Amino acid sequence: MSAASIRLLCFPAAGGYGAPYRAWRTMLPPEVDVHPMDLPEGCADVDSLLAALDSSVVALADRPTVLFGHSFGGLVAYELAQRLRDGLPLVRLAVSASAPPHLAAVARGAFVADSARVAAWFTLADGYRHRPRPALDCPISVFGGLNDVTVQRAELAAWQEHTVGSFRLRMLPGSHDLLREGGTYVARALARDLLDDAGQAAI
Q1: Measuring CA to CA, which residue among 175, 168, 159, 174 is closest to residue 192?
Q2: What is the pLDDT of residues 38-86, one digit of tens each?
């Protein structure tokens, strides 16, 4: 592949910021352009949040695109994949520490954000309601923390219901705060998936 032939859009947990994903730029191969995404402030509900993100995601999707999200960010990535599925060159959806859409209602408390704005973000996240739609065509990668007490392996495995493509689940050292505790492991595992997608040897 030529340099930066894959765009990786990374969404944080509720109330978080995309800046921590900048570290992934040194962890992933040059074929992958890591683009941290901030969640827009002041949205009344999940639908308005997604609508506010639509145009920026479309503008960045000028090459094969991967959507990655942590915790509530995983649901944001999934919903954007569904909303934009007819026009987005999506090659993979990846999530960490995120219950699948159809189980999100029973996984309250999994949306973690260390922020003064946490109350408003919890209210928004708690308002998420899954609408059944056809499974995605792209593969899905899922990462979970071995010590995560809020989203456990059985829930993570249920993401497989949302793709007709390949599915891969990895359990890694860490809790629900998996990206802070084991972000290097997540980044390296995701890199293997992306290079495998491209028919290259895993790193």
Answers
A1: 168
A2: 999 889 899 999 999 999 999 999 999 999 999 999 999 999 999 999 9
Distance, in Å, from the CA atom of 201 to the CA atom of 4, rounded to the nearest integer, reads 17
How many CB atoms lie under 10 A from the CB of residue 12?
A: 23
- pLDDT for 7 equals 95
Residue 24 is given by DSSP the state G
Q: What share of the chain is helix, strand, coil (3-state, %, to 5)?
A: 40, 20, 40
Domain ranges of the chain: 6-197
Q: Are 77 and 93 in contact (CB under 8 A)?
A: yes
> Tens digit of pLDDT for each residue in 116-159?
556 788 788 888 999 999 999 999 999 999 999 999 999 999 99
Identify the CATH number of the domain defined by range 6-197.
3.40.50.1820
Residue 178 is classified by DSSP as H
Residue 9 DSSP SS3: strand
Based on the number of CB atoms within 10 Å of its own CB, is 19 exposed (0-12), middle (13-18) or buried (19 or more)? exposed
Q: What HEC string does 33-54 produce?
A: EEEECCCCCCCCCHHHHHHHHH
Catalytic residue IDs: 71
Task: Show the beta-strand stretches assigned E in the chain.
Answer: 6-11, 32-36, 65-70, 90-96, 140-145, 167-172
Q: 96: part of which helix (H) or strand (E)?
A: strand 90-96
